[in-house]
Specification:
3-stranded antiparallel sheet; 6-stranded mixed sheet; alpha+beta; D-Maltodextrin-Binding Protein, domain 2
Length: about 450
């Protein structure tokens, strides 16, 4: 696994309560229990004598499903008057499903949402989710337990729309093959390394056999996600991709131009990044195979640890710092919300808070992947035993504020940028004034559309 680790993931799982108890499958009964008579959301009414059913809509995912299977029976044991019923949908179908249920009057009580794609803003505008400020106050929930930047990111028009379920600092992480560094006699990167350092290191890590590249020095994250990766690099140069209200795309300003040029140079000048037609399988598969010396990504890449096994030692570091003195970051948040249709908002919020509490956030990390959006989760000793989690904590503690396009067409804007950057990485286009202007206009056209 990582250099300097104190124990393996398998050993760790065996020594935790989670590993000892295994995954208890939830026995979810069908909906239909009598609703609470308290529909005010205040939570002050006397508990109903009958069991209350809380239906929650989840996005399907291995990590999340494992957590739900573990936490649902525990919650219902602690709250015998509440029955939790899970209804899960694939991510690609999620919004369509909940919109259809809203229109048909069959929407449940709680639901997954996300800042990504401005999903949570759209759901607020659609009337799918309800503010939770009063519910949190009535339940005595201390909101300071979550990262302030995460809460701010899911607050709209002064209304807190949910609680952070999972969160990370964006594409702020550079993963590196520590064994490759040792092979070529390089010191591993430190928190203060610079963009110039990264170029030098990437060139040293590049490995060829005859005419074939067997290890690429560095793959910028822009190949996988141009918006999120370029945002971090743009911030490293002291700029932003969007103005404060999200109405203007700032690609033609110097910091963004420099960020694009930096990535383009990796592909086409320094030749240390695999071009699109040189990607074998997926980026994750190339990383696992050891054919990438370094790559930029989010905290999600750490789940490759099990697949890497003992093939090589790896570690993570914050992105190389630019002239602004940062490597660039961005709060990204998944949330759970109370629906506007819930007849049992107090009970629904109780389940939402449980899914977003300290222990749930830690268990997400033990399962593997992105963890809860709380300082006490990122700082939990059970997770910090893994050295890469210490890096993630430092990045999350200092993450930069999220910005979303003002008309909430975030996914559309990201898709356009992604498509138009591919010719840059392939080397069939250059980041000159003409092509950069073409990209800027295409994305701005998306930002100029009305809200959906």
């Amino acid at each position: 696994m990582t250099t300097g680790r104190s124990l393996s993931r398998r050993d760790f799982l065996r020594t935790t309560a989670f590993g000892a108890m295994g995954l208890t499958l939830a026995a979810c009964a069908a909906p239909g229990a009598a609703p609470s008579t308290d529909t005010s959301g205040s939570g002050d009414a006397a508990p109903s004598a009958e069991k209350v059913t809380v239906r929650f809509h989840a996005r399907i995912g291995q990590q999340e499903d494992t957590l739900y299977d573990m936490m649902m029976p525990k919650f219902m044991e602690e709250n015998p008057n509440i029955e939790i019923v899970r209804e899960s949908f694939p991510g690609a179908e999620f919004q369509t499903k909940v919109s259809t249920m809203l229109a048909g009057g069959t929407l449940g009580d709680a639901m997954w949402s996300a800042l990504g794609g401005a999903t949570i803003y759209f759901q607020w505008a659609q009337g799918t989710i309800a503010p939770i400020d009063e519910l949190a106050q009535s339940a005595g929930v201390d909101l300071s337990g979550w990262y302030e930047g995460c809460l701010n990111a899911i607050t709209m028009e002064g209304n807190l729309l949910g609680l952070p379920f999972k969160a990370h600092p964006g594409w702020a992480v550079t993963y590196y093959n520590a064994s490759a560094f040792e092979e070529v006699g390089l010191d591993v990167p430190t928190a203060d390394w610079t963009l110039d350092d990264q170029i030098e290191v990437a060139m040293a890590l590049q490995k060829t056999e005859g005419d074939r590249v067997t290890r690429y020095g560095y793959l910028p994250g822009g190949f996988e996600n141009a918006w999120k990766a370029l945002l971090c690099t743009t911030r490293a140069y002291g700029g932003q991709l969007l103005n404060e209200d999200g109405t203007q795309f700032l690609l033609m300003e110097d910091p963004a131009r420099q960020a694009v040029q930096y990535s383009w140079d990796m592909f086409n000048v320094h030749n240390v990044a695999p071009k699109p037609d040189q990607i074998l399988g997926t980026v994750n598969e190339m990383w696992i195979a050891g054919t990438l010396g370094m790559n930029q990504a989010g905290t999600f890449r750490s789940v490759a640890d099990a697949a890497i096994g003992d093939t090589f030692d790896w570690m993570a570091v914050g992105n190389a710092k630019g002239p602004a003195g940062v490597g660039g970051s961005d709060y990204e948040v998944d949330a759970f919300c109370v629906t506007s249709a819930s007849e049992n908002p107090a009970e629904a919020f109780k389940w939402v808070e449980y899914l977003c509490n300290h222990e749930s956030g830690v268990q997400l990390g033990i399962i593997g992947g992105t963890i809860g959006g709380r300082p006490d989760v990122y700082g939990d000793e059970r997770l910090l035993q893994f050295p890469f989690r210490q890096v993630f904590k430092e990045l999350m503690d200092n993450a930069q504020s999220a910005r979303v396009v003002g008309n909430w067409r975030q996914a559309e804007a990201e898709s356009v940028l992604q498509q138009m950057c591919q010719p840059l990485w392939a080397g069939t286009e250059e980041p000159n004034d003409a092509y950069m202007e073409t990209i800027a206009v295409a994305v701005q056209d998306v930002l100029d559309k009305p809200r959906p």
